[in-house]
Amino acid sequence: MRKNIVAGNWKMNKSFGEADELVNGIMTLLEEKELPENTMMIVCPPFPYLEMCTDYSNDSYFMVGAQNVNDNDKGAYTGEVSAEMLKSLEIEYCIVGHSERRAYYGETDAIVARKVDQLLKNEIHPIVCCGEVLEEREAGKQFDVVRRQITDGLFHLTPEQFGEIVIAYEPVWAIGTGKTATPAQAQEIHAFIRGLIADKYGKEVADNTSILYGGSCKPSNAKELFANPDVDGGLIGGASLKAEDFIDIAMAF
Length: 253
Ligand code: PEP
Prior knowledge:
about 250 residues; alpha/beta; TIM Barrel; eight-stranded parallel barrel; 12 helices; about 45% helix; binds phosphoenolpyruvate
């Protein structure tokens, strides 16, 4: 059975001291509250704070993920971080294909596919983002865009490999804007994504894939979003920077 997942993408925020305070706050709240059944939390801090977060998490409270990875094995790629390095830090998840990386750093579907391969080779679960920009939504092209991103980024995988993937549908017009997809819009496209997976890999693989919603998800709207049958949690940006909000979102299941 697929898991409910709430993953926090801190992006390029927080000093080391602030990051320490945030993760400490998350731990303290998780010690007090019991997460709903079958719910898992993932914290995705900037690279320099990964080890501090894994030291805290000890795997029992939350998992730790990276926000990016390079698509090569190793070598002369100044400033980059490889999947093998993440593995050596015992990182188990990594975001790939976030719209900010697609828009600002030219991350194409082909690069997403290569990053996914690097991560799987190192036993790290890719959290693969997809989603349309506003003009594409207004032109009714959201299904075509998402189909292309999923097909070109992921459908080279074997069914066993696909079983390691988490998908995050993030309409770009909803990221950091305060605009959220309606629960019906989220359900419609999540069901479409699950259908694509079922057509390619069969119903069992599709039913076992967690598909997260991202885009201005917060404590006040998480419950109605997560109530949809094909919404298995959230990839949370802004609201993951406050321990209480992040935990309240996970309690919304
Ligand atoms: C994100 O960037 O993954 C995201 C969902 O951001 P926010 O929650 O701030 O819209």
